Each structure stands twice: as structure tokens, then as C-alpha cells.
Amino acid sequence: MVRSFSGMASSADCGLVKDDPILYRARVAPDRRALFEVATGRQLTYTELDVRIARCAGFLRAMLGAQWDGARVAMLARNSMDSLVLAFACQRAGAIYVPLNWRLNAAELRPILADCTPALLVHDEEFSAVVASLADADPEMAVIATADGPGGFAARIEANLPGEPVPVDADQPCVLLYTSGTTGQPKGVIITRSNAFFAAVNFSFVGEIGPGSVALCDLPFFHTIGLIAVARTTLMLGGTLVVSDRFTPARTLAALADRQRAITHYFAVPQIALALRGDPAYSAAALSGLHALFVGGAPLTQALIESYLGDGVALVNGYGMSEAGTVLHVPIDRRAVQDNPGSVGLPAPLLDIRIVGEEGSDVGEGEIGELWLRGPAVAPGYWNKPEETAAAFTEGWYRTGDLGRREANGFYRIVDRLKDMYISGGENVYPAEVEAALASHPDILDVAVVGIPDTRWGECGVAYVVQRPGAAATGEEIAGHCAARLAAFKRPARILFIESIPRTASGKVQKHVLRRLHSDETLQRQA
């Protein structure tokens, strides 16, 4: 069941126009550059983008016929201008855009398609083999490749007359974003037209986005950071979006260093920020034109923050999710970044936040509790998931499942996932704290800690460690490093070396995968 928020402004109250923001920008700044595509060098003005979206909307209406209202249109493709064209065209045509994670295999995509039942699937040729193996998922689902030529997606857009925006209520879904699955079970987050609008407004405030902004996006459009925070916000505010189909450190650094391109905003997950600094092409000068380098999706190490600050770059940390968009962000201010290490900042303007304890009441300043959110950017629920929706949304509040605290200066910190916390010897252990201590070891490149059952203590921690190239720290050495920084009950009982930490596209650790690895290893030892 989809739940709506009490007190949320209706579409009439908000004064939202029924069409998308591109139509407005095409009216007021028709010749301003809207998009530039790194892979092809193609670019579109707002007028050209508006016409292309209109033709695509006409194509969708012609293809979907009487079934256009609320029909799902899925896309399995890397970032491109036409990915955004299809997203906005779905909104104009009254359909629902479903960007699929192209990192998933057919077995992982199959339940998502079964859940959203798209009438149309558009895909890159790169993923043709995966799509072919999904052909029997829904015999009625039409499939179109983005390939050039008469039957390709681009040609079909060009062959259609522009379609007029259809009148759809602002509280109706326009996007389904399937969660990255840190628990192993992706859910389709319902993003309404109103949600998308206010999520973009929130990021425009915290990111200081405006008509003069030029944002580079190589984070995938199947995630809220790429599709909503970066792409939609930049276009809604009349800036220029530089679309990259993939992240490669050297190419991204070249784009950031290009003074003619004049990129002002770049959003990364911590692994990307780390990869940029580790690339031979890295230089502080390449990033000197940035207003800020935004980071989210996973915890930041203090060493990484300080390394960028030393180069004069504000590495601005934040916190958000598919269900709410941008939630918290450190102000774009060197002093704020320096004085609040590890913080995720202050609340976005159009958002209410509570920190709720185990008894269901708000906790005091500095105390740990679950973050609850409310506001017009917060999603109404999950597609076809009434029980999950009822569990996550309580009287208009979204229960994030993340533990955090509010400090005296009003800044917030995320302590850990509620489900990731474990109890060892009667004491609460937050893996994020243990991971931060481990990450400060110079030989450790990446780390994740999970709680596992223990006959003596109830639960204990297992640390999965990725060493830096050429490093040779032993488990005993790392254990000693922990002993100097953590109480005994917080120290991991086991330290296991691993080639890479399994992560989602947004950089979050898939701890259910690590727990399964531990279970499999335990069974093998018992056998």
C-alpha cells in the first residue's frame, strides 16, 4: 500500500506546473546549453532538449496507446543524453520511468522486472545478451535497443511528432528507483512528480546550484544521486549537465581540468574520491575550478578529507537515500568541513528530522537513535510492497534504519545502520566506529565489519580487510592497531583479508554478502 504524508502540500497548494522543468527552461533560456555528452561530444540547448523530450513523449504515447497512464518504461543503459530524454518523456507522457542497474545479472534483474512489469524496455547493445536471457520474463514487454539505425531508439524518437504533456497529478509516481539492495532484497521506491521536484530543490540549496553551474555526472542514473540530485537539479535550475557514461579516473580528471568546460560541481562516492587521488594524472590544479567536490553514499575517512583540504578542495560530505533524496549536507565552507570531521552536516531546508530511541520517543542531544524523516521530498512508499511500506512509514515519518546523533552545534553524524549494530557482552557495537579505527591503519585500503554469533559473547565482530598494493600488514599487527584505539568489546574477534569489499553502485557495503561468506566458511570448516 502506498501511504501519503499527512500535512504534505497537494499539487494545487504547491503551484507545480503539470509539465516538467525543461519546458520552463526552454521558454526562458532557449539557447542556453543544457547537456554535453562526454562519450560523443554531442550537446543540446534547452530548446533542442525540449523538442527531443516532446518527440520521445509522442513516441511513448503512440507505442503504449491506451495503456500509457502509469505504464512502466524500463531502461538498462549507461548514462547518456537519451537516458534523460526518456526519463523526462515518461513524465510528460504520464508513464513511470524505471532505470535498471546495469551491474546486475539476469537472475538479479528478473525479480525487478516481475515486480514493475514494464510495457517497454530500452537497452544499450552492450546489455543485449542479458536482455535476451530475460525475453521470457514478460512476453508482452516490448524491447528496443539504443543502437543507431532505423529500428534504434534514437530513430524512433525522431520519427514521431512532438507529444503534448498530459495532465497528471503531482502526487502520482513518475520514477521507480530500485534500492541498491544492501539487505539483498531490492525494493521499488516510488518517486512522485512532487517528490522529484522538492528533492531537486533541497539539493539546489545545499549544493548551491544555479544557472551558472556546470555539473559533471558519471554516477549512474539508476541511482538517486545521479538521476535526481545531480541531473534533475542542474537542469531544473538552468545549469549545464556534462553526462559521462562511466567513471575512469584519468578521463574524469581531464574533464575537471578542462577550463573551457568550466565544471563547477562534481559528486562522487568515497571510492571514486579515493581513486581520483590515487591516479597518476591527479593534481590539485585539475580540481581548482570546482565549487565543491560532493561525497555521499558511504562513510568518509578523516585521512581522505584532510588530503583534499590540503589541496584546497572542500570535500563536502552528505547523507541521502532513494526514499528522500538529499537529507543532510555539510555546508560548502572550508571551516565547516575542517571543524566537523566525519559529520554529514545540517538538514536540507524542506525536511523534518527526528532521532528516535528504542521506546519510540525522541532522544536528547548527543544521544544515539534512529533517524526519522518527513517532508515533500520523502517517497510515499514501495511499489507492490504494502508490508514493507507499513513497516518503514509511520504516521507520515519515514524510518531510515540508520542510527545517528545530533551534536551541540546542530550538525548530525551517522553512527551505523540499525540492522548492522550488534551486541557483544551486553554492549552495543557500531561497526562504523570499528571500521573508522581500522581505516586509519596506513596499510588498509578498504574495510568492513560485521557481527556474527558467538557462544561466549552473544555476538562478536569479523573484520574484512583489503590491503593497499604492496602492503603486508599481519592480522596481529592490525589487532594491535585496534587495541590502541578501541575498547576490548569493540575489537574484531577475527581479521580476514579479502581482495575487495562487495559494494552497491552507490558505494554502500553489502554486508549480507559478507555474512553469507562467513556462514559458508563456517559450514566448510564444520564439514
From TrEMBL:
<protein>
    <recommendedName>
        <fullName>3-methylmercaptopropionyl-CoA ligase</fullName>
        <ecNumber>6.2.1.44</ecNumber>
    </recommendedName>
</protein>
<keyword id="KW-0436">Ligase</keyword>
<feature type="domain" description="AMP-binding enzyme C-terminal">
    <location>
        <begin position="433"/>
        <end position="508"/>
    </location>
</feature>
<dbReference type="InterPro" id="IPR045851">
    <property type="entry name" value="AMP-bd_C_sf"/>
</dbReference>
<comment type="similarity">
    <text>Belongs to the ATP-dependent AMP-binding enzyme family.</text>
</comment>
<dbReference type="Pfam" id="PF13193">
    <property type="entry name" value="AMP-binding_C"/>
</dbReference>
<dbReference type="InterPro" id="IPR042099">
    <property type="entry name" value="ANL_N_sf"/>
</dbReference>
<dbReference type="InterPro" id="IPR025110">
    <property type="entry name" value="AMP-bd_C"/>
</dbReference>
<keyword id="KW-0479">Metal-binding</keyword>
<feature type="domain" description="AMP-dependent synthetase/ligase">
    <location>
        <begin position="25"/>
        <end position="383"/>
    </location>
</feature>
<dbReference type="Pfam" id="PF00501">
    <property type="entry name" value="AMP-binding"/>
</dbReference>
<dbReference type="InterPro" id="IPR000873">
    <property type="entry name" value="AMP-dep_synth/lig_dom"/>
</dbReference>
<dbReference type="GO" id="GO:0046872">
    <property type="term" value="F:metal ion binding"/>
</dbReference>
<dbReference type="GO" id="GO:0016878">
    <property type="term" value="F:acid-thiol ligase activity"/>
</dbReference>
<dbReference type="InterPro" id="IPR020845">
    <property type="entry name" value="AMP-binding_CS"/>
</dbReference>
<dbReference type="InterPro" id="IPR050237">
    <property type="entry name" value="ATP-dep_AMP-bd_enzyme"/>
</dbReference>
